[in-house]
Amino acid sequence: MAATKKIRIQYYRSAIATPAKHKLVVRGLGFTRLNQIVEREDTPSVRGMVKAVPHLVRVVGPEAR
Questions:
Q1: Which 3 state secondary structure label does DSSP give 38?
Q2: Whether residue 63 has pLDDT greater than 70
Q3: In whole angstroms, what is the distance from residue 29 CA to residue 36 CA?
Q4: Which of 7, 31, 45, 52 is the most exposed place for a label (fewest CB within 10 A)?
Q5: Coil, strand or helix: which one is 10?
Q6: Phi, psi (degrees; rounded to nearest 5) at 51
Q7: What is the domain count for the chain?
Q8: Is 20 inside any structural domain?
Q9: Which helix (H) or strand (E) is 48 found in, with range?
Q10: Which residues span the domain enclosing 51?
Q11: Which residues are CB-neighbours of 64 under 8 A, at least 6 positions away?
């Protein structure tokens, strides 16, 4: 079984005053609190979610582009 690539994402800025769709994207990525770091599979759909809210989340670690 091939190892899947992972991406580490940090939720570093509050989504309080953002549109409802942005809040749903943050929840969809699995974030529950500020400054939390989650690890997800590096797929085009996850990359698209990160790209939708670049002002709220950031990619951390050596694979950050």
A1: strand
A2: no
A3: 11
A4: 45
A5: strand
A6: -70, -25
A7: 1
A8: yes
A9: helix 44-52
A10: 16-31+40-56
A11: 58
